[in-house]
Amino acid sequence: MQSHFIGGAQRTVRDLPIQHREVVRNGGERPLDMNGSYAVGQMYAIEYRLARPRSPLPVLLWHGGGMTGAQWESTPDGRQGWLWRLLEAGHDVVVCDAVERGRAGWAMFPEIYAEAPVFRSAEEAWTLFRIGHATPSGVDLGLGEPFAGQRFPHEHFCALVRQMVPRWLGHEAMAMAAYDALLEQFGPCVVMGHSQGGGFAAHAASRKPHLVRAVVGVEPTGMPVVQEGQQGQQGQEGADAFAPASAIPHLAVWGDHFAHSPQWQKYRAQTDVYWQLLRRLGGRAEVLDLPAAGITGNSHFCMLDTNGDEVLGRVLAWLERLGR
């Protein structure tokens, strides 16, 4: 096991007033000067290397928006997470905290970050993550009526809320630069990304195709946007730009209860468009629709659901068929 802080840049802050604060308890006031140089935009990664891995490719685990790598490590009800299961399956694993999340740290605002972060309430998480029906604000940290057959351990929903962290909007380029640096250090690899991390994984396959051998998007969001026929604007690219990514196998994994969430129907449709493009370019872009496969009741967090091991088993079987 080894920890890494990867990527980032130096930023300098000037002209802040010097404060006089008690920094150490009972230590009295002292001058506090926060002018100076800071590391910004780095990500945190911890690698787990097996003595005898069965696969030559490490699996990089990229978390979702407002979350950290903790979501891969264990479940809210205390079971082993996909990190451990991947190690058991013979893969080296790298778990990341993306820029501004968890142990990656964040920077002062507005001096370095332009805006304040956004936060996700328990009530929003309960519905957005497709765990259950909406509940009145402030009631038991959002705990309301779960959907019938719900696989998320909803009795332990508060444990999920405790691991949610603030996030800054508009930091995609900074985060992707750190992910690029991560791939340079650990690739070639398999990238498994959840939600926002799944979108970053799709972008990574396009940006660094020589370092990515397969992409697994677990309910991915934020797909590359294609402008047909010409070089696009504002992050959009022509279809030909994705030809290198089409040579990399992609798998999208979708849970249940989409009928309850127009927002997730939209996210899924955006992924469908990109998957269709990869297929038109001759690529292998597959879908594991869990309900269609007879696995029902999953939330947005398949890796935390009570049948998470079964879901991962399907993903591992896909990787094995690829020879990954």
- Radius of gyration using CA atoms only: 21 Å
User: Which range does the strand content fall in?
Assistant: 15-25%
Count of separate DSSP helical elements:
8
Could you say which overall geometry the principal axes of the C-alpha atoms support?
globular
Tell me the number of strands: 12
Task: Going across the biggest sheet, name each strand in turn.
Answer: 1-6-8-7-9-10-11-12
Order of helices and strands: EEEEEEEHEHHHEHEHEHEH
Mean pLDDT: 92
User: How does the major sheet shape up?
Assistant: 8 strands, mixed
Derived from helix and strand composition plus strand pairing, the structural class reads alpha/beta
Secondary structure: helix percent: 25-40%
Distance between the first and last residues' Cα: 22 Å
What would you note in describing this structure?
Helices cover 26% and strands 19% of the residues. The protein has 324 residues and is an alpha/beta fold. The protein has an eight-stranded mixed beta sheet with strand order 1-6-8-7-9-10-11-12, sandwiched between helices. Strand 9, helix 5 and strand 10 (212-218) form a beta-alpha-beta unit. Helix 4 packs across helix 5 (196-207). The two termini are 22 Å apart.
